[in-house]
Amino acid sequence: MPAFAHEMLREIYEQPLALRHTLALYLADNALKPDVAAMLAGWAIPEGEILIAASGSSRHTGLAAEILLEDLCGLAVDVEYASEYSCRGANTKADVRHPSVLVLSQSGETSDTLAALREAHRRGQKTLAITNAANSTMAREADVSMPLAAGIEKAIPATKSFTCQLAVLYLLALYEGARLGRIDAESLATHIGELQALPDSIEKQLDGWRAQMDALAANYRSANTFLYLGRGIHYAIAREGALKLKEASYVHAEGYPTGELKHGPNALVSDTVPLMVLATVDRNLEASIMRYEKTLQLLVDMKAQGARVIAIANRGDDEVVSLVSDCVFVDAAPEYLLPIAEVVPLQLFSYFMALAHGVDVDRPRNLSKAVVESAAG
Questions:
Q1: Residue 374 DSSP code
Q2: Of 60, 73, 320, 330, whose CB has the highest number of CB atoms within 10 Å?
Q3: Domain count of the chain?
Q4: How do residues 102-154 score in pLDDT, each as one tens digit?
């Protein structure tokens, strides 16, 4: 493993091992652990409604989980900002819905998310906590806890805890899909095998991504703002990539659904406002191909417009290469696992952009690892 000048870079490189350790908590002999299935059995309500409450990067994994749980399990999922949900107690008399509540927090101590968990308990709702601290307050107070095994994360920008959250949420979808009969035994075995192959795949790609993102950060250092674009489950990764760039390098960025670019944000696109476009595809999934083809058309339009575009695309996708300024490849993976891989080069880009701007990347200004006290107002 190469030398690391910063904890953030070290933790980016620790992701394959962190993922292996996390998967081992929930899988044995290439199957879902029965004791975990038993633990989860009483959490989801019969009506199949789930509310996810989280903040920051954890909310972005929640956005990905919304797609996973709806597409793979047929559940109805809403994603709330924890800071908003925890302030809605006065309206509960008019609220006839009582979904199960999933809270996501790397530390398990985030004050707004803890308040959301306690509000859910006050309403008599079942709760599940996913945190990177098995002994955290949220893990103890929730009805069910699904911890990560990412290990201690010292850098303030979340990296390995983020990808491990995505992995556990994918596992949650597999457990729920199997319980509900939406995923049969053959498909379940395929999904598990694909998930278990992912850490090795990421590990093999890290050095190439590191070199390429170092060079791209030097080329795009002068950009004032970035617009990150993704469709479907990849929109969550566009949001996360933009947040990472803001918090690590102090360069402004916003994440949008790809199809929304022309509904206003396109007015910003210029030499100083490049695009970061997630243009990966799962060739075995019709819906993914449709999203990809729509993204290609947007890239055609952006090329005609003269936009500077960095794309994240499948390895060997010459069509995307022909339409963009720069292309970063990721190995092929299933649609719902691609986000775990494609976020890693975005993490590296934010890291090298931070270095290019002279930022102390492990300790960005005005930020802390866990927001344990809500801001006034």
A1: P
A2: 60
A3: 2
A4: 999 999 999 999 999 999 999 899 999 999 999 999 999 999 999 999 999 99
